[in-house]
Amino acid sequence: MTESEQLLDALDARVERRNHRRDFFKTAIGAAAAGVTAFSLTSKAGAQSTITDADILNFALNLEYLEAQFYAFAANGTGLASSQLTGTGTQGAVTGGKQVTFTDPVVASYAREIAADEAAHVAFLRTALGSSAVAQPAINISGDANGAFTAAARAAGVVGANGTFDPYASDENFLLGAYIFEDVGVTAYKGASPLVSNKTFLQAAAGILAVEAYHAAIVRGTLYAKGIQTPALITAAGQISDARDSLDGSSDLDQGIAAQTINGQTVSNIVPLDTNGIAYSRSPAQVLNIVYLNRASVTLGGFFPAGVNGTLRASAAN
Amino acid sequence: MSEERFILDVIEEASAKRRADRRRFMRMAAGAGAVGGLAMLGACNGDDEVIVVPTPTPTATATGSVTDADVLNFALQLEYLEAQFYSYAAFGTGLNASLQTGIGTQGSVATGSSGQPRQVAFQDPIVAQYAREIAYDEIAHVTFLRNALGSAAVAQPAINLSGDANGAFTAAARAAGVVTSTGTFDPYASDENFLLAAYIFEDVGVTAYMGGVTLLSNKTFVEAAAGIHAAEAYHAGLVRSVIYRKGLTNGTLITAANQISDARDSLDGSTDLDQGITVTASGVTSANIVPADSNAIAFARTPGQVLNVVYLNKAAVTGGGFFPSGLNGNVRTSAASG
């Protein structure tokens, strides 16, 4: 079989998978084919060369502050230690956050494990960056009517236009709150991977990426298993996924957890992947579209009401 | 202090702390353990029981000596293994013949008179759905890597996925103490056995891509490898959390998963690169779905260490276990890990 025949087979497989696995695909098929071609020819153009490793790590640190504070409050009722919040830029406070009264002890155990991991990520990145680490920016993780979670849930249609979404109110809401963040972290680290030049940092970033993917699988798998009895959970996860996808531009970079039917069999979709079985990438600016809850090019909003600290702080114009 | 030096110090300090804090650290007299398949890891399974066997640090593959194609071909063969396993378990059939050709010696998937690779009669429909999803993902990885490599892709080497007494799964399960020294482990016999067999592979894939990502020079390959790396971590998180959940009412599952983790750890040298699915601290046992160091960073294995695990041999060899004739390509020798 020639290479071109193999490629055609692969494209056929992609078409088949697209039809079966996904509800809709926008531009990904063209991107996927181009990706394979680029693979054997050249690496990506380096318009990103002005971004330093420290810029990337500080961008990641901002995201880890957000995740760590959310999980720390949900699991333990307290936020990060004050010694973990200092650094360059404008230090901000956390708005909202409280302990969840878990009814499923397994979910409580997962929350504690993830909280410990995210706190470790903050500590690790701060130590790696040393004196160049950015301070924690202002963070809104409130579950009240003015909270970022409510804004996200309203935008996604998880609650009505006047409804409130409190991620600390129940196991299910906690899982959906976690779901908002987890896949985004995976795509953020993957998108950053080719931007990191130092091999030691690259390996560390890959290791954090893997941990975020483990977390995302826990959250998605738990939502799916509970969703068998409570289908509204699967619906809500799909709505959140679609909302993220609408914020970050026209590329399809997100998938819900609803099962698909392939060859007459039910197939779960715990893992959000393209047709090559590869996780999605988001650029730093696309990640900011989501956490700022704004598809325009802005420097603050949503979960970061004063914006993130560091040089990578503007979302993309979508 | 340079950034690299600093980060290395942090990692070193943290891994020592993690060994003490987060997991029961067990260093088996593994020579006996995994290779001969006779010594029972389970016999030393008590918490806080530490048997330190000084072994040399495995020699890492020199970065400069492997090409990107070498790394991708190495990954492709792990994907052949995973794709064949999940494809048989989920659908009862292996990879399409057109996906097995390439450079080197093409081999087949060994079948035995009993316990041969076959479709699992799943009892839990959700586990069946997961099996199908992972199977499709792994097949996609094979296809993707073959296309990326083009005419440089290696053929599928001989693979042993049998569940009979002579199968690689049985050898692994005996070495881990999941079954006795004369017992048989058939991964196609039940939902639980399927999950444990998947567990044998999944974390290894994560550590393999983690180790491989820094060996790649082409940035496009780096990003693609990171994306497959993430997919494997999602799979691993799924498998580990399902085993944990089921293990709450079937404690032998958690014990077995932890034994497998220890067996893997005993094969790949003295560095602690693996964790079971529970952790006991201050007498309280809780979930440990994510295997990571004290910085919450996933572990990395060198290609040589990955081969220790899939060859089921901690010595420097070129075949065995799940790959009875070894790998194709240039990266085919396991590390001298003890």
What does this molecule look like?
The complex is a heterodimer of chains A (318) and B (338). Chain A has helices spanning 3-21, 28-41, 53-76, 105-129, 148-156, 171-192, 199-227, 231-247, 284-291, and strands at 94-95, 139-140, 260-262, 265-267. With 318 residues, chain A is mainly α. Chain A has one domain (3-291). In chain A, strands 1-2 form a two-stranded parallel sheet. A two-stranded antiparallel ribbon of chain A has the order 3-4. In chain A, helix 4 (105-129) links the parallel strand 1 and strand 2. The longest helix of chain A has 29 residues, at 199-227. The relative contact order of chain A is 0.15. Chain B is built from 9 helices and 4 strands, in the order αααβαβααααββα. At the A-B interface, helix 1, helix 2, helix 4, helix 6 and helix 7 of A face helix 1, helix 4, helix 6 and helix 7 of B.
List keywords for this structure.
heterodimer, A: 318 residues, mainly alpha, two-stranded parallel sheet, two-stranded antiparallel sheet, 3% strand, B: 338 residues, 4 strands
